[in-house]
Amino acid sequence: MESLQVSNCAYIDLGRIKDGVDGVLSVAECGRQIPFDVKRVYYIYGLSAPQAIRGRHAHKHNRQVLFCINGSFNLLLDDGTHRQEVTLDRPDLGVYMDVMLWHEMSAFSPNCILLVLASDHYDEADYIRDYEAFIDQVRANHRNASINTSGRGE
Ligand code: TYD
Predict the structure, then answer these.
(1) pLDDT by residue (tens digit) across 48-101?
(2) What pTM value is reported for the model?
């Protein structure tokens, strides 16, 4: 697995409990592997169209952990400065996506199923769906952070 160079995200490795011929378990518990209380679970499937793309947005408050529980897909992560594409193809390895992280999912295998754990209920107002608006917000956040660091904004 390729290390992540992008801010606001991290791999979450659930590990595998192997039950011999009876299969394998991977477990996600809030406050342990998942760094927030889960308010919403959704899954995405029916991804057989080769041109299918999902995501293409960032969130203001909602945090998520994304798993590929069947098949594979490519996940593009972009913090406004660094951009990286990784392949997710293991049900035990997820990606934590913090706020202000542009993400796009593509190149789905036809049998792909994504499982998403979210910190907040669905709220369209929490989405930034325009990439230029996302970049503007990242720059504004950097400006505010440097003003606060120098003590002039207080
Ligand atoms: P979207 O979040 O853009 O999907 P993805 O991130 O997987 O590309 O949502 C697609 C549509 O589904 C959009 O019309 C909003 C709706 N939706 C809900 O109603 N509730 C939800 O929890 C989610 C994730 C989406």
Answers:
(1) 999 999 999 999 999 999 999 999 999 999 999 999 999 999 999 999 999 999
(2) 0.94
User: Dihedral of CA 40/46/49/50: which sign?
Assistant: positive
Q: Which two tokens stand for residue 152?
A: 């002039």
Strands, sheet with 64-70, edge to edge from the N-terminal-most edge strand: 9-13, 93-97, 64-70, 113-118, 40-44
Cβ count near 141 (within 10 Å): 13
Spacing, Cα 54 to ligand 1 middle (Å):
9
What distance in angstroms lies between residue 38's CA and the mean position of ligand 1's atoms?
Answer: 17
pLDDT at 51: 96
CA distances (Å), 36 to each of 30, 39, 62, 79, 132, in order? 6, 9, 10, 20, 29
Question: Is residue 119 helix, strand or coil?
Answer: coil
